[in-house]
Description:
The chain is an alpha/beta fold.
Amino acid sequence: MAATIVIGSQWGDEGKGKIIDFLAAKSDYIIRFHGGNNAGHTVNSNKGEFVFHLIPSGVFNPNSTNIISNGVVIDLEVLVNEIEALEDIGIVIKGRLLISPRAHLIMPYHKILDEIYEREKGQEKSGTTKRGIGPAYADKVSYNGIRIGDLLDDEIFSRRLKTQLALKNKILSAFGEENLIQEDIEKEFLSFKRKISSFVKETSGIINSAIDDGKQVLFEGAQGMFLDNDWGTYPYVTGSSVLANSVTAGAGVSAQKVESIIGVAKAYTTRVGEGPFPTELNNKIGDTLRKLGNEFGATTGRKRRCGWLDLELLRFAAKINGFSSFAITKLDVLDSFQEIKISTNYLYKDKKINYEDLGLNDINKVKPVYETLKGWSSPTKGITRYSQLPIEAKKYLQFIEEELQIPITLVSTGSKRNETIVL
Ligand code: GDP
Ligand code: IMO
Ligand code: MG
């Protein structure tokens, strides 16, 4: 049994793509099991930088099979573009990509609804990626979704689309948006169907057999723990469950079959979009982190908000997901700091409090307690051996391990696959 789940343990963009690409080199299957093209997973390969939105970040291993399982919501235009972009750089996808017929489609009206919600909420907006994610998941749970498998049957697709347009056009009209036309969507989706139908196949059985046969199976989490729909900073979250256990709903695999769960955390914290962020640095230090870490969204290009590492968040993420280990990324971004702060816990009304015990809207009011560590002021970029790290960098990592009581097994010192320390 060799199934591993990789989970973002902050607010997304932790460097999951880099870690997945590293682990994928020795994996047989890589599986996206939730989220959609709100994700942007960057892989810096020898063919250049590639940002994956839907296709698993393991395709650079030519021997791997990559699966988009039922829990993912799919914008077919994005998927088709991604397949073509990979083919353009010589990556053969044929025979190596599987898409579950149960995965729900992001329809044109989902993207417009996402826009409308954000616009009409004004100051209360979530800061979504406007990719239609929330509306697509909302339709899924309210029995209004249309699935990849429905698209394969012209008659069913046409019928379902007609029902939905009758509903959705009324909403669009109410907000002054143009109505969508059935024939236009059918025509567009027919062309998508021609491009993707050969990849569509039930995936749960394939994944289970692979695990049972001892193959290396890697589940690629998207977003991050604190964007989780239940346990994140609601309502500033995403539409899917981000938790490790959502592989059961999202890929049809029992949690019992999973051998290890790796939490990916940046050596500091970032967040894109609205919502609370206790260790945020709205100052020069935050700007420096953004500049050195090139913290601009891989999907939307928005500026990422930056702050110090927050161990209270990581502690909760580790607990609820059951992390076996952590992968710490972007250590090199801290190379030039003389002092580095880490928040060890929160105070609320002068008392120590855990994330999960906070009142629903109180995370805005906590005071992070900081420990100040000496920086290493020397380059770690590209270092591949722990022994070569400066003593202060080792102390930084040891401090995190001791506070969290979970081993760090991977340290990333650059965006390329080989810029990685295995511990
Ligand atoms: P993901 O969504 O978790 O896959 O992360 P993103 O791809 O959105 O953002 C992470 C960014 O950091 C990308 O530009 C990566 O190429 C880059 N990156 C990943 N690991 C490292 C690292 O260890 N050091 C540096 N400097 N950059 C890294
Ligand atoms: P990866 O997989 C960072 C954020 C959005 C917004 C909130 C809701 O690359 O780490 P949505 O479009 O999902 O309805 O937006 O979630 N968000 C992400 N932030 N990384 C991501 O994915 C994200 N996916 C969604 O910015 O705050
Ligand atoms: Mg990202």
